């Protein structure tokens, strides 16, 4: 899995993922949204479930709440030493995204807590407590 | 049994075969499949030449070469009128039986062999086989990049969400795991038979928090095969028929989006409705259940999703003894995925057949007029259920 985890997105990465990561690195988190204006869709959508038009990337506020989370006690890649916490964040625009919790060692996270996009310097999108 | 609509089954399972179940990587899935298929043919009192349909199912994380259509040559099958590989993850075992029953009912075929085989346990255990992405978010590579790996990672999110919604904690998971172990103690073929001590459970290592080792399925290498026949010819063989009275599939459209709860919506609410509506039955009609339960949380979600208890009350239902030996609704009577063995959709199917036949020995449920069998795959995205009975007419 090493090549897929390079800092710079490479050609073998899904182009939508590459673009999300490129913009996230500049401080702008995006979600998929109906090009015809129906609003945000979930990240798995390839067309708008309401009108069938294409979806495109649109910036989001970066604010959200913890919908759920899990703590991994074994490492799966070199960039994420264990333990690390994966948050399933519900963005205030509606979509849910898996991100890495930026705040290990701080107060324990809880479902429902407000969190905010804190960066993606190493190609991994992180959220911290709001 | 309390079925509003009188019905007569058109198909039945007449043969059950299994390979050896092993924690050693000494045989391929394909070789295990041959053993199970030949076992099922023998169990049904048939000759190989009498099989005219074959349905295959392999693990969703394995390539098709692991269990190819060429399996028909390995078994020495002749001309077939039905052949397909079914790929709906953990809901496939029941779906194979459903499609076999439908094809038989349509006059397309007479005797259909349905087989699942897998060999996930390698030299270093089964952990590597399952350390893959489930692509929960729906962006290729995203989950791996963010460390969200394996079914355990996905189901850990389900557990945490369930805890939040219902104020539950790890004690709920312990009850589900301990109940399965009580049944396994009565099953000589179960792999984990020692009673599960509470301290031992809480001391077991995290796989992905909040899931501990004893919350997770016990994988083995092996295969299970069944033979589906028309009900008219079901009593020709040496074993009591297992009549197939209804099926329901339910593949949830829930998204990772505000308002949806894919963490706890198992598809049971859809499959159950389809099954119960077809039968004219309510959950009260069932005497026992064999759930697809790769994680302790999934038995709790199944009891709630099928309406045996209210949402949030599954753990209390188990703790009160309802599903345990001697309870009013025996469930996972062989020990289930956690304590007997994990061969995906075939674990609950196998145990249901044993129970309907009355071959459960010490673990035989007192009443088996109607049993519920379930299967699901993905993170509960694909779901199937069936109702089985020793009676052709209910
Ligand atoms: Zn639209």
UniProtKB/TrEMBL annotation, chain A:
Domain of life: Bacteria
ChsH2 C-terminal OB-fold domain mapped to chain residues: 58-115
Phylogenetic placement of the source organism: Bacteria, Pseudomonadati, Pseudomonadota, Alphaproteobacteria, Parvularculales
Pfam families: OB_ChsH2_C (PF01796)
Protein name: ChsH2 C-terminal OB-fold domain-containing protein
Alphabetical list of InterPro entries matching this protein: ChsH2_C, NA-bd_OB-fold
């Amino acid at each position: 899995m090493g090549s897929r985890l390079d800092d710079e997105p490479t050609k073998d990465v899904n182009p939508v993922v590459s673009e999300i990561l490129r913009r996230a690195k500049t401080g702008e988190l995006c979600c998929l949204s109906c090009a015809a204006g129906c609003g945000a869709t979930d990240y798995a959508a390839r067309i708008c479930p309401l009108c069938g038009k294409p979806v495109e990337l649109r910036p989001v506020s970066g604010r959200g709440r913890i919908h759920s989370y899990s703590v991994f006690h074994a490492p799966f890649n070199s960039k994420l030493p264990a333990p690390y916490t994966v948050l399933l964040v519900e963005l205030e625009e509606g979509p849910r995204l898996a991100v890495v919790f930026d705040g290990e060692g701080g107060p324990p996270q809880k479902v429902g807590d407000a969190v905010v996009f804190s960066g993606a310097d190493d190609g991994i999108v992180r959220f911290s407590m709001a | 049994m309390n079925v509003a609509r009188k019905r007569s089954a058109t198909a039945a399972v007449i043969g059950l075969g299994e390979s050896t179940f092993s924690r050693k990587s000494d045989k391929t899935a394909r070789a295990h499949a041959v053993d199970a298929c030949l076992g099922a043919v023998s169990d049904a009192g048939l000759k190989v030449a009498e099989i005219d349909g074959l349905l295959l199912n392999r693990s969703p994380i394995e390539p098709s070469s692991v269990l190819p259509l060429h399996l028909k040559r390995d078994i020495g099958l002749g001309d077939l009128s039905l052949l397909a590989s079914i790929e709906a993850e953990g809901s496939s075992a029941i779906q194979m039986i459903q499609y076999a029953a439908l094809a038989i009912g349509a006059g397309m075929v007479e005797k259909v062999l349905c087989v699942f085989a897998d060999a996930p346990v390698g030299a270093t255990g089964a952990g590597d086989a399952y350390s893959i992405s489930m692509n929960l978010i729906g962006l290729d590579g995203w989950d791996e990049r963010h460390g969200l790996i394996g079914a355990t990672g996905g189901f850990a999110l389900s557990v945490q969400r369930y805890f939040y919604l219902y104020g539950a904690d790890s004690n709920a998971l312990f009850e589900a795991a301990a109940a399965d172990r009580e049944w396994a103690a009565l099953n000589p073929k179960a792999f984990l038979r020692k009673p599960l001590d509470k301290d031992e459970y809480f001391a077991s290592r995290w796989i992905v928090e909040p899931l501990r080792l004893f919350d997770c399925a016990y994988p083995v290498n092996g295969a299970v095969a069944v033979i589906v026949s028309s009900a008219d010819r079901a009593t020709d063989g040496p074993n009591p028929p297992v009549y197939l009275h209804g099926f329901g599939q339910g593949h949830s459209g829930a998204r990772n989006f505000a308002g949806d709860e894919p963490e706890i919506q198992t598809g049971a609410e859809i499959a159950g409705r389809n099954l119960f509506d077809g039968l004219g039955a309510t959950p009260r009609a069932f005497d026992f259940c064999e759930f697809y339960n790769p994680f302790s949380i999934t038995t709790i979600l199944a009891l709630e999703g099928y309406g045996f208890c209210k949402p949030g009350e599954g753990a209390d239902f188990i703790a009160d003894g309802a599903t345990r030996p001697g309870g009013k609704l025996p469930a996972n009577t062989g020990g289930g995925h956690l304590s007997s063995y994990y061969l995906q959709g075939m674990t609950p199917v196998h145990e249901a057949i044993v129970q309907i036949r009355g071959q459960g020995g010490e673990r035989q449920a007192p009443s088996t007029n109607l049993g519920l069998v379930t299967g699901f795959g993905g993170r509960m995205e694909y779901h199937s259920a069936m109702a089985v009975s020793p009676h052709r007419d209910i």
